[in-house]
Design a protein that fits this description.
The C terminus is likely disordered. This protein is of the alpha+beta class. The chain starts with a helix and ends in a 13-residue tail after the last helix. It contains 26 helices and 14 strands.
């Protein structure tokens, strides 16, 4: 049983220690961990030897002292380990000097009987004495544990949650191992008066340390568990093969050729088997054989090239954004190759981008120049760090950034981009891995070029968008200024209109009094002049009314007051009032009224103004000697008014703007420079407010037809709301005359 415990614990400790070292030989903490493993193995073997009474007393004495030395050595190595892992901490000069002196004293004393005592033979049984300075050994043991605990507890959350958890697990592992080791190997033997039988169970204590470290490996990725397991299998087979071979050979030789029972026992003794195990560790050919065997079993073709290329192609085709493309490609490559990191460096224009797996290294422009110089002389193949001369600048660069392979992506004879692949987690890269990376170089370059083209378009769009935003901002500022000016203009027009209306009303009233003879008899010539003045003042009143209505529209005070009205009468009166003006322009003005027309609820004053505006425009824009025809009819449930002339018409290009505020056609401005452009605008507002629509048709140089449609059914009843409610009724402008 003791031998089985010895073999299993030694194999586990040494195997794990060696593989930690092989993972990264440059790290100080890996070398210290190996030291812990070796010293732990030495302590286990020493304890095993001290508990076998059949051995020579001198050997037992020596093994007893070795157990004290190796046990203390394990703790010293563990303390040093905590200075470098999980967080490196500095060691003061005083602390270092005192530590060296203290360790040398304890180790020196442990090699004497002052601490370890002596093995003596009493009544045929080996007994151990207690050294007088063993208390000093225990005190040093306690100091080491205290320092180790201090180092591990000094790791805080702000240094990283993983480091904190690693420190806690290591603290638990080493503390438990040290405590139980001290209990079984020192405290219990002292308490029982020098009975050292409990030391035979000492190797079991190391299971706590090994199991906890194994858990840390799996949970936190401290080491690669797959590699450790596979390499462990290889070493176990190596040890078992050589130990078994030695045992069988020794047994066969002793039986066949050596008949001395003492020699046979020596050949089969535990010491001989332990020596065989030690030889197994240094017997490289056997180890290499089992390495190759386990590689062929566990690492043979661990990824399918075709599947990898297919997956990578899907990632490259799915992403168009450059950074997203680089990240997805990096994750696929690093995941397949089991790399610690993967990232790209891409140059475009005077910019560059680093993108890849999380927490990847960063390449600066100066670093890339070193790579450019290297591939200029060495070629554009993949740069493998382990194959580069250690004296080369590129070797230091790659090692500094933990890069195993740098793949230049060539375009036009130059390296436009680089793919960087970190160290492999499980094993070293093979030539096959390098060939796969070189195979995908062209595909990566094409995908990057496409993404760069998209990126250029996005950059251009971003620039254009910024310009549009700036222009929009400027237009908004200008628009606000124009709105302020427009408000000031409306306020001025409203004020001026009100101020002009009062004296103009007086002028119109006095002219009317003179025409009616209140001021005495007037001649025919005087009457003609006064009538023209009265008509002009009438037009001025209407003009001021238009301006006031525009102002009311802006202030929300344009109200439609619907009352029962006779539309035929309104039109007849307006035609009659404008007959004199029509005759003055040598025009024939006629009105064709329907035989029957219903009463409608209208804002009579505003409808009258609309009718007057249509007829007045027809008079002033018609050629002399022509006719103006006014017609009122009922069509499709609507009251339709049309005023048709043979005047100048409206140019086709300007017709869409005809009913907008202050707009006047080009030919209209030449014909009548004093127009305002608000008559038709207000006419449309009034008609739409009644739920109706405009009628318009025009041919430039031949004449125009203006008018409106009013819904009879809607306007046959009193209003139930205000003008705003009428305004919400659906309506459509009609650009076709019904007068034909």
């Amino acid at each position: 049983m003791d031998l089985l415990i010895l073999i299993v614990t030694c194999v586990i400790d040494l195997t794990l220690g060696l593989f930690v070292l092989l993972r990264d030989t440059r790290k100080t903490y890996t070398r210290l961990f190996v030291a812990v493993s070796i010293l732990l193995t030495g302590w286990i073997v020493s304890n095993y030897l001290t508990n076998h009474q059949e051995l020579n007393l001198g050997v037992i004495n020596l093994a007893n002292k070795a157990a004290f030395v190796s046990g203390f050595g394990v703790l010293v190595a563990a303390v040093l380990f905590t200075y470098f892992f999980p967080q490196r901490r500095s060691i003061s000069k005083t602390e270092r000097n005192l530590g060296i002196i203290g360790v040398l004293i304890i180790i020196g004393l442990s090699m004497t009987s002052l601490v370890s005592g002596d093995a003596v033979l009493e009544n045929g049984t080996v007994e151990f004495t207690i050294g007088p300075l063993v208390w000093l050994y225990i005190a040093a043991f306690a100091v080491c544990i205290g320092i180790m605990v201090r180092n591990l507890l000094s790791i805080h959350r702000d240094q990283g949650l993983v480091k904190l958890q690693q420190a806690r697990f290591i603290l638990i592992a080493f503390s438990a191992t040290a405590f139980f080791g001290l209990l079984l190997n020192v405290i219990i033997p002292l308490a029982e008066g020098g009975n050292w039988d409990s030391t035979r169970y000492g190797p079991l204590v190391t299971v706590i340390l090994v199991a906890t470290i194994a858990y840390t490996i799996v949970k936190h990725g401290l080491f690669d568990i797959r590699l450790a397991a596979v390499r462990g299998v290889a070493y176990v087979f190596s040890l078992l093969t050589l130990a078994g071979t030695y045992y069988l050979v020794a047994f066969g030789i002793s039986r066949l050729f050596i008949h001395d029972p003492a020699a046979v026992a020596a050949a089969q003794s535990p010491i001989s088997i332990v020596l065989a195990l030690i030889l197994a560790f240094v017997f490289q050919p056997v180890r290499k054989f089992f390495d190759r065997l386990t590689n062929s079993i566990f690492f043979h073709d661990n990824y399918d090239t075709d599947d990898f290329l297919s997956r990578l192609g899907e990632e490259l085709s799915a992403a168009t954004d450059l950074r997203n493309l680089l990240q997805r490609a990096s994750e696929e490559i690093a995941g397949t190759l089991q790399s610690e990191q993967g990232f790209f460096y891409v140059r475009y224009g005077d910019k560059h981008i680093n993108a890849g797996t999380p927490h990847h290294s960063l390449m600066e422009v100066g670093n890339i120049r070193i790579l450019d110089d290297y591939i200029e002389h060495a070629g554009s193949k993949a740069i493998v760090a382990d194959l580069v001369s250690e004296s080369a600048d590129v070797y230091s660069l790659l090692k500094q950034h933990k890069i195993a392979i740098a793949l230049p992506l060539m375009h036009g004879g130059k390296a436009l981009s680089y793919l960087f692949v970190g160290r492999r987690r499980s094993r070293e890269y093979t030539q096959r891995d390098v060939r796969v990376l070189e195979t995908i170089a062209n595909e990566l370059m094409i995908a990057i070029q496409n993404a760069l083209s998209v990126q250029e378009v996005k950059d251009i769009n971003a620039t254009l968008q910024q310009r549009v935003n700036d222009a929009t901002k400027e237009l908004r500022t200008t628009n606000k200024q124009l709105q302020r000016l427009d408000a000031a203009k409306d306020e001025f027009i409203s004020m001026a209109s009100h101020q002009l209306r009062t004296p103009l009303t007086s002028v119109k009233g006095y002219i009317s009094m003179v025409l009616e003879g209140d001021m005495g008899h007037i001649t025919k010539q005087q009457r003609e002049v006064l009538e023209e003045a009265f008509a002009s003042s009438e037009r001025m009143v209407h003009l001021i009314g238009d301006f006031l209505n525009v102002s009311r529209l802006k202030t929300g005070k344009f109200i439609i007051d619907r009352r029962s009205s006779d539309l035929v009468k309104v039109i007849t009166q307006e035609v009659a009032s404008l007959q004199s003006t029509a005759k003055a322009h040598n025009l024939e003005l006629s009105f064709r009224q329907p035989s029957y027309f219903p009463m409608l609820y209208l804002d009579e004053a505003k409808i009258r103004q609309v009718v007057m505006n249509f007829i007045d425009n027809a008079i002033y824009y018609s050629r002399e000697g022509t006719a103006i025809k006014v017609a009122l009819s009922i069509s499709d449930g609507s009251a339709v008014l049309t005023v048709k002339d043979t005047g100048i018409g409206v140019p086709p290009a300007e017709q869409p703007h005809l009913f907008t505020k202050f707009f006047r056609a080009t030919n209209a401005r030449k014909k009548r420079p004093d127009g305002t452009g608000v008559g038709l605008f207000l006419a449309k507002k009034v008609i739409v407010a009644h739920g109706g629509s405009m009628v318009f048709e025009s041919t430039e140089g031949e004449g125009s037809t203006f008018g409106f449609r009013l819904p009879i059914k809607l306007l046959s009843e009193p209003a139930t709301g205000n003008a705003d409610e009428l305004n919400n009724q659906p309506h459509h402008d009609d650009h076709h005359s019904d007068a034909n």
